[in-house]
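thread from #wetlab-drylab

HS: before we spend reagent money on co-crystallization trials with iron/sulfur cluster, can we at least see a predicted complex? here's what I'd submit
DV: go for it
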Amino acid sequence: MQRLRELSRRVEAVYGEIAETFSNYQQRQGLQCRSGCGECCLAPTIEATVLEMLPLALHLFDQGKAEQTLDQLDQLTEPQGCFFYQKLSFDGKQGQCSVYQQRPSICRMFGASGYRDKTGQTSLSTCKTIKSDNPAKYQQSLIMLQSSPPPLMMQSKEQVNELDYQLGNKHYPINTALQLALEQVLFKASYSFEQDNQQIA
Ligand code: SF4
């Protein structure tokens, strides 16, 4: 269990850097997310590794909510948006993250990020809402791709996932990744508990 906690601290340290890097880019280019928008969190295609969900799984465990959350996740019947998204409008587009401090890497890069295109050049990926809210800023950001390149999403995800090959090598739908992270945490916790009991006996 100690190993998982140490690993989680290292993941969180990288998360701090990622959040700052991506947020700085959005602010510098004027490509901030619309206030209260949570459309990204509704997508059933959001993916994360087990490693990326480890800080959240440990947080839930420490709050005594690991088993309960696992049961609730088990009952989800079809692919859907993130379990932790709280909808605040009828269509669900307005809402908020209920686990903001522990959110995985992908959520720290929503909005505007860079990727390598087929020719290896850096391109800009921006959500359609940001594009329609700030068309001039978006065009300006495209013109400035060389002088002010966007941070690369894959590079930042790698920075996290290279911390543990086994837990960071495969992507799953976000709710599944959390399920697997919770199972890891509960397994390690019960193993540590048994070891402690054996030492006492
Ligand atoms: S963890 Fe939070 S920010 Fe990430 S998809 Fe879920 S609700 Fe959205």
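DV: The pocket of iron/sulfur cluster is lined by residues 41, 46, 82, 84-85, 97, 99, 103, 107, 174 (CB under 6 Å).
HS: ok that's useful, forwarding to the group
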